[in-house]
Design brief:
36% helix, 4 domains, single chain, BirA Bifunctional Protein, domain 2, alpha+beta, Threonyl-tRNA Synthetase, Chain A, domain 2, Ubiquitin-like (UB roll), 26% strand, 5-stranded mixed beta sheet, 33 strands
Amino acid sequence: MINITFPDGSVRQFEKGITGQQLAESISSRLAQEVLAISVNEQIWDLTRPIEADASIKLHKWDDEEGKHAFWHSSAHLMAEALQALYPGIKFGIGPAIENGFYYDVDPGETVIKENDLPAIEAKMIELAAKKEAIVRKDISKGDALQLFNDKGDEYKTELISDLADGTITLYSQGDFTDLCRGPHLPNTGEIKAIKLLSVAGAYWRGDEKRKQLTRIYGITFPKKKMLDEYLVLLEEAKKRDHRKIGKELELFMFSETVGKGLPLWLPRGTALRLRLEDFLKQIQRRFDYQQVITPHIGNKQLYVTSGHYAKYGKDSFQPIHTPEEGEEYLLKPMNCPHHCEVYKFKPRSYKDLPLRFAEFGTVYRYEQSGELHGLTRVRSFTQDDAHLFCRPDQLKDEFLKVMDIIFIIFNALDFKNFEAQISLRDPNNREKYIGSDENWDKAERAIIEACEEKGLKAKVELGEAAFYGPKLDFMVKDAIGRRWQLGTIQVDYNLPERFELEYTGEDNQKHRPVMIHRAPFGSMERFVAVLIEHTAGKFPLWLTPDQVVVLPISEKFNDYARKVAKELFLQDVRVTVDDRNEKIGRKIRDNELKRIPYLLVVGEKEMETGVVAVRKQGEGDKGTMTPEEFAAMINTEVAKMMNVY
């Protein structure tokens, strides 16, 4: 017999070799029908895998990420099985589950798989799923695995196997399809009821632009057709909210092949919005005693060697800049933190000087492969709302809590009320990925956990997701249509102060190392604006929107009065524009509502004679007439109420 510990702490005895499926059946038949995977001692397993020793377990249903992961991972294999049947000789790269669905990278040889081929692949998947094929796990030696995939002529799998240690390799088979895979998977394909293949893209093998470009097919599946129908409606809404589409319509930003891929150009309206966000954060930072600094866009290569960034990211960054002086190399700045360490070292520091809080809207550069670029969310040049706090160890938790307060203020101001927190810690089984001593890591991890407990913030713990120099607290925001975005981040770092030999003189007159906190509430201005556009569908809060008001003269005869009204509003800090096109008023109203301008002021003969404006509010229609002074007072009061709340 073995002891099985359940999530509520209860312990029951079962026969050795019991499976997750059998455990679920021992609780209830309904649970057995709904469960998709099991955690055994915090490792995700197949439901059919025997448990041979005492273990702590948790059963996962569709609502759990682990359950979805097993479902979509199995769906990737189902798609691969269908592709193998439809395209004899096709070769397979990798096919993981992702946040929403799955993909598989394949090499179809001379055949080209296009979007209009997807319905036929879907149909084959449905046919195979209906057979309820068992998905069977098998341990295999490295030699046998290499032999198997060599015989199939699948060089992508043999390359992957070559990187694996013997004794760690598993295969999964269903029907005529066998794949190299760690799992976990569903017990059989019959659970997969609703299937939609979404798109076809190109992807370089192992992310290397010098390797062959494979065909990447994206898809999503569900256990019920109703779920798929709801998701497809969500996809249509997401298309309407696409920040690239809205950004173009509202003239916020652009890209130019001449300037370069992944290098955004901010247009005047987008710049106004972005600067207002920056000003908002700067006001908050002043309340928390931050000091603004400005650092260069490049730095000596040795700076990033010292920080550890070059060893970790050098091969994936823009290559060094060589100056006319022999041996002198610079890098485009990939991070602001090494520069801020040097600012700290400018002069001797005392324990009385701490904490020091240096903030910068610093533009950094990272080389993203062209296939990974996506609007403002994946770019090669972006501006971080970066700050680095240097404090004594006894100040760490209090400073961490204050940074959390700043993030909550921003989320509230921009209506991101639905968010989750994630504590990202080291991978205990792969510590060579990280720099610094175990003692410092333990202290940093403990500080984050205690700060979350003190705030009453329920945070999910993820092993292996820490930055290479320290653990972090990340905030995942859900937007208006339920999508998750990683935005704010706070990181605790004992290691860069060691590497840069940062010091302060303590009360004991001895030298001590400060602790460093990295924080970016927005994350990057580019990504944050993209998420904000899609969250609001371009209807920004009144305090933030580039144009709060547009004045619409009924005909050209009233253009002068429209400009007079606009000038009066401008002098009272209202952001206003005039639409003096020679168009009918109905067309002007429709066009400016499409531009998401909150207030439309219509002026004609009656308004000019009485010195008023006819007010329309976006989404609410007519609001009556008032003088420009009354309107300015109303709109400024509305903005003031918003800002006072924050």
